[in-house]
Amino acid sequence: MRHNSSLPRHAFTLVELLVVIAIIGILVGLLLPAVQSAREAARRLQCQNHLKQIGLASLNHLASQGHYPSNGWGWAWVGDPERAFGKNQPGGWIYNVLPYTEQQNLHDLPLAGSDKRALTAQMTQTPVPTFNCPTRRQSKAFTAFYSGNPKNAFNANDTPSHARSCYAINGGTEPQNFTGVNDPSAYDNDLPSVNPLWRDTATGISFLRSEIKKAHVKDGSSNTYLAGEKYINADHYTDGQDGADNTSMYQGHDWDVMRWGSPSNLPKQDRHGSTAWNIFGSAHSNGFNMVMCDGSVHSINYSIDGNTHYRLCNRSDHQPVDLSGF
């Protein structure tokens, strides 16, 4: 047998192989940003859908109870199904809308056995995907970290973790009375009237023992914020060391579950090393999402005019609002 050594060999040279690898690398480099952008667009759309569900739940609460969800008593209290809705409910707005987000069983969990405090603690650790933005973090219980404060509420046992929310209710234009009603004797004396003057002058939709009716939203439900994304220090999404994101989302009146509007303290994108306890904001690069009192959801640019943002937080200032910047 003869071997014909003159036949051509079909193979890449080393230079050709390196060129192909370089081209593939360039193509992958061009493709990755597009893939990441598409993924973020999907996460942003999911976030908007969460706020849409929150808006519909709040409107169903309004139709059923006659007022928007109240924001409870203070950070040291969580929801209690035996205290119904409104000013006598120690839990905040998220707890109050649970029955209207197909979470009636979670709302009623403290009554599922003989140890109410233990079951209430279990509730505080139970996340609901509707209340977390997928761009920022997963929906799960995160470490319960406090700087010198107790880890348990007055009406629940101590817990190693908490379910937390990326969304906050519109508390109005002036953050006031952060301490709320943090007195364990409130259960015994059925909570006498607390700061009635402040409650009468608050400008938001939900706050300490509030019962805001549709008629109270004098600027119109399409011109008033209901709830939206809250600003969080980007270093502390999961460790609970941001002071406005360190307790259960089922708690009452506190900046963990409510935010305010100011002409000079505007919403902003989450940042590393920067803490702001009272403003709206988000992890999205192009803007933050808000749901209005009519249930409509808007993506709003961080460059929104300060006075416009301030007026959208005030339910009855009787001032015109330019919505063209949305």
Provide a short characterization of the protein structure.
26% of the residues lie in helices and 9% in strands.
Question: How is the topology of this model organized?
Answer:
Layout: H1 14-65, H2 93-97, H3 104-107, H4 116-124, E1 141-143, E2 161-163, E3 167-170, H5 196-201, E4 225-229, E5 258-259, E6 268-269, E7 281-282, E8 288-292, E9 297-300, H6 306-313
Parallel strand pairs: 3-5, 6-7
Antiparallel strand pairs: 1-2, 3-4, 4-8, 8-9
Structural class by secondary-structure content: alpha/beta
Residue stretches low in confidence (pLDDT < 50, at least 5 long) are: none
Distance between the termini: 82 Å
SSE pattern, N- to C-terminal: HHHHEEEHEEEEEEH
In total, how many beta strands?
9
Strand content: 5-15%
Question: What is the topology, as strand order, of the major beta sheet?
Answer: 5-3-4-8-9
Mean pLDDT: 87
Cα-based radius of gyration, to the nearest Å:
25 Å
Write structural notes for this entry.
The protein has 326 residues and is α/β, with parallel strands linked by helices. It has one domain (14-320). 26% of the residues lie in helices and 9% in strands. The protein contains six helices and nine strands, in the order ααααβββαββββββα. The chain has helices at residues 14-65, 93-97, 104-107, 116-124, 196-201, 306-313, and strands at residues 141-143, 161-163, 167-170, 225-229, 258-259, 268-269, 281-282, 288-292, 297-300. A five-stranded mixed β-sheet has the order 5-3-4-8-9. A two-stranded antiparallel ribbon has the order 1-2.
